[in-house]
Amino acid sequence: MKFLIGLFLIIATTIHANEQKIILSSTTSTQNSGLYDHILPIFTAETGISVKVVAVGTGQAIRIAKNGDADALLVHHRPSEDAFIEEDYGTQRFDVMYNDFVLIGPKTDGIIFNNLNEFFNTAQISGSLNFVSRGDDSGTHKKELELWGYFNNMPPLGKWYREIGSGMGAALNMASATNSYTISDRGTWLSFGNKGDLVIKWAGDSIMQNPYGLILVNPKKFPHTRYKQARIFANWITSPKGQKIIGDYRVDGKQLFCPDSDKEKNNRLACPAQ
Amino acid sequence: MINLNYKSVSFSQNGTNLLGPIDLEINLRGITNVLGYNGAGKSLFLELCHALIMPQSGQIRWDGQPANTTRDSRGYIFQHRITLRRSVKNNIALPMQAAGWTKNIINKRLDELLYMAKLTSKANEPASTLSGGEAQRMALVRALATYPKLVIMDEPTSSLDPNATTEFEKLIKKIASSGVKFLWATHNVTQAKQFADDVIFIASGKVAEYSPGDIFFIAPKTLIAQQYIKGL
Fold first, then answer.
1. In terms of Cα–Cα distance, which of A167, A149, A187 is closest to A61?
2. Domain range A101-208, CATH class
């Protein structure tokens, strides 16, 4: 996989100089949701700039950008994003959109939780609720670890907790096959085709919000990057039109992402209204 | 007419001033050609007009509204061909789909646009199989799909052969006669003489001259424009 990503980056860098093209280092959740297939052709038709998406976990996406192998970064882990800017790798962060994380689990176990705290305490103490963790340094993995720390003040330990070192689709497949719990972003969950017995067990707390930020890679650090084109992408995706297209995107009639660039118009508690 | 207002607009990159300051208020009628030497700032001027990029200082307004809030009222054609990986008709349909039009309305409009661009017989072919001229005609009718009042074009014929250029120019004449306005950068003086109702001449990142086409080509006011017209 790393070889393929490396090969792609070499090819992408080779064609960089002559074309109106940017490389967007991004999280798998946005790619898997189908959002890019929906919005990027419209962006290209309107601006003449095509976008090559390198979809990996947030941690890897940030490392790619830190190597100067991307022009912009679209990820979902605010502390890492802020650090990226503080370390001078990025010039500016834009709020683009958000959805939320959801706790997924088997419907057939019949357990109803009264709050998230109850789930995390029960899982840790009883050891009887199997949990699949992505374990891949992605934004979702980072969020999951943040939740364990927040509710239990300690990392999860035990045979019931499995780290698979893979993407969201693989984690959901594993949870489906083993009647386990997992944390997923809502977009991937809605577009996931193999739900089996899995259902949303808990959603809606403010701590489960999942904001996505776009950061432009600093051209002073990496002069070969296409800052102007990346800036056009940022302008477009945060414009009223770009935001409307994001908000209009549906899978099976359900909204996956909520526009987030206009703080005056948006009310995070009201979206997504699933 | 469409009012364009550049108010104290400047654009710089990495500390270098590339355009401006520009103060310009004009009413676009018919076809306005943007002329100037390579590197003068023509593309930048057009990109700012369409709010593809935003100026570091100043404001650009169209009919009194900020340029970045009125993008849907304009189309934009690029020098390089923009063909998306889908059929010709699906390329043209994209802005209508993005605008949320119904299938019936999209199909009716598609028929008109395909006919206008002489691409009806190629509607279902992959856009990647089109020639350069066909691809630019497709891009032009795609930009027109949602009835913009103005089309901005950045040297759209610079990579076309003479026949393809003639076909493209015929299409522009036809569209312009329907009332759509054009803001069109070209490096081809002969082409501009044929089409320009007005000319914006840009030199060293500033608007050196704005004149009606018939006056500009006969009696340009600035020395640099005189030299440009003579091909010096």
1. A167
2. alpha beta
Of A48, A231, A241, the CB nearest to B72: A241
Residues in contact with B25: Cβ distance below 8 Å, sequence separation at least 6, in sequence order: B3, B4, B5, B6
Which uninterrupted H or E stretch holds A229? helix A227-237
Instruction: Give the residue on B whose Cα is nearest the Cα of A43.
Output: B95
Of A48, A219, A235, the CB nearest to B53: A235
CATH of B2-230, one of 3.40.50.300, 3.40.50.720, 2.30.29.50, 3.90.650.10: 3.40.50.300
In whole angstroms, what separates CA A173 from the centre of its chain?
18
In chain B, which residues touch A (CB < 8 A)? Answer: 13-14, 47, 51-54, 68-69, 71-72, 76, 78, 80, 82, 84, 86, 91, 94-95, 98, 100, 142
User: pTM of the full predicted structure?
Assistant: 0.77
Q: For A132-184, give the DSSP string.
A: EE--SS-HHHHHHHHHHHHHHSS---STTEEE--S-HHHHHHHHHHHT-BEEE
The tens digit of pLDDT for each residue in A88-147 reads 999 999 999 998 999 999 999 989 999 999 999 999 888 889 999 999 888 899 999 999
Q: Which residue has the higher pLDDT, A4 or B118?
A: B118
Interchain contact, B82 vs A232, CB within 8 Å = no
CATH architecture, domain A2-99+211-270: 3-Layer(aba) Sandwich (3.40)
Delimiting residues of CATH 3.40.190.10 domain(s) in chain A: 2-99+211-270, 101-208
AA letter at A186: R
pLDDT, tens digit, 9 for 90 and up, residues B59-94: 999 999 999 888 889 999 998 888 888 999 999 999
What's the CA gap between B195 and B173, in Å, rounded?
A: 8
A42's enclosing H/E stretch is: helix A35-47
| Amino acid found at A45 | A
Q: Which two tokens stand for residue B141?
A: 């009718």
Give Cα separations from A4 to A9, A10, A161, A166, B187 (angstroms): 9, 10, 30, 16, 42
CA dihedral sign, ordered B45, B49, B54, B60: positive
Listed residue (B108, B176, B191, B106) closest to B140, CA to CA: B176
> Would you say residue B128 has pLDDT above 50?
yes
Residues of B in contact with A246 (CB under 8 A): none
Q: For residue A19, list chain B residues with Cβ-Cβ distance below 8 A.
A: 80
Amino acid identity at B20: G
